[in-house]
Design goal:
Layout lengths: L3 E3 L2 E3 L3 E3 L8 H8 L6 E2 L16 E4 L9 E4 L8 H10 L2 H4 L3 E5 L4 H14 L4 E6 L15 H15 L3 E5 L5 H11 L5 E6 L3 E5 L16 E5 L4 H14 L5 E5 L5 H10 L1 E6 L1 H6 L3 H16 L15
Parallel strand pairs: 3-14, 4-7, 7-8, 8-9, 9-10, 10-13, 13-14
Antiparallel strand pairs: 1-2, 5-6, 6-12, 11-12
Bound molecules: orotic acid (ORO).
Orotic acid binds next to loops.
């Protein structure tokens, strides 16, 4: 049984896409609906539609053998259709017919934009639709990541949480310092309806260089972009577990980063994840990835004698 509950809403299985992967337009979202994913989330919306950064802006990175085996680098720059497109999509979304809830990612470029967007979603009174507010896009030139400014995060939440009313989540960047885990968890724990944190967004501002051509792998920002996929698994597991240990009772963690098979999914759950998002591997393999990782996770659980994900969630043993 791979089912889970996030923010009070049931998912038939723990897997869905990471915001940004396979979810900008309706045809991609439809493919997620038709896939084995237990839910789906839309591309981070800004108030106005955006073209994003110049291409090429996504590149799979080889592990020496397999293209994409090492992970990916990307700098999309929040290309999206504008929040009204996703609001309309959410309005006609039929949770019962699809058998999956809909997550909506919002990434306001200012607090005023975020206020306008969350107010519009709150007023639409959409059941089975959950907001994930993005505090961690590393790819908009001139815009620092909110998640690295604890005070700005606190003031933003103080404004948005009451407007959202319903349980919601935030997408966090990776942290690398125990003091930062403590500080961010303290902020998160102040807001009752902040029900989950999604850990992690891409590891910001890596640089990938092709050995033969001596060129950067992507065009924006002199080649700097967010790292994803296998190479970020251990950073993701640490962030999932750090927040799992620190969040107030009832709050949850959604794990994302480095899931290429059922094995990494199992590790994310052991670290404390209540659901699992897939980004790079979805980009490389397409929506069939969900049926594969479900089979693989089920087979690991069967071998270990676990019947549900709750039985081992957060139960990583320490030495
Ligand atoms: N890329 C990321 O890695 N994370 C985000 O939140 C947004 C983007 C992007 O649009 O570039």
């Amino acid at each position: 049984d791979l089912s889970t509950v996030i923010a009070g809403v049931p998912l038939s299985n723990v897997f869905f896409n990471a915001a940004g992967a396979w979810c900008q337009r309706e045809d991609e979202l439809q493919a997620l609906l038709d896939s084995g994913a237990g839910s789906l989330i839309t591309k981070s919306a800004t108030y106005e539609a955006r073209e994003g950064n110049p291409t090429p802006r996504y590149a799979p990175l080889a592990d020496g053998v397999i293209s994409g085996g090492g992970g990916s680098i990307s700098s999309i720059g929040l290309a999206n259709e504008g929040y009204k497109y996703y609001l309309n999509y959410a309005r006609q979304f039929d949770v019962t017919r699809h058998g999956k809830p809909l997550f909506i990612s919002l990434s306001g470029l200012s607090l005023a934009d975020s206020v306008k967007m969350v107010t519009a979603f709150a007023q639409a009174e959409l059941s089975g639709c959950i907001l994930e507010i993005n505090f961690s896009c590393p790819n908009v030139p001139g815009k620092p990541q909110l998640g690295y400014d604890m005070n700005a995060m606190d003031t933003t939440l103080a404004t948005l949480a009451p407007l959202i009313e319903k349980p919601f989540g935030i997408k966090l960047p990776p942290y690398f310092d125990m003091a930062h885990f403590d500080q961010v968890a303290a902020v998160v724990n102040k807001y009752d309806n902040l029900a989950f944190v999604t850990c992690i967004n891409s590891v910001g501002n890596g640089l990938a260089i092709d050995l033969d051509t001596e060129r950067a792998m992507i065009k924006p920002k002199n080649g700097f972009g967010g790292l994803g996929g296998r190479m970020i698994l251990n950073t993701a597991l640490a962030n999932v577990n750090a927040f799992y240990r620190r969040l107030a009772p009832g709050k949850q963690v959604i794990g994302v980063g480095g899931v290429v098979s059922g094995k990494e999914a199992f590790l994310h759950i052991l670290a404390g994840a209540s659901a699992i998002q897939i980004g790079t591997q979805l980009m490389e393999e397409g929506p069939p990835v969900f049926d594969r990782v479900k089979r693989e996770l089920e087979s690991i659980m069967e071998k270990k004698g676990y019947n549900s994900v709750e039985e081992f969630r957060g139960k990583v043993k320490t030495l």
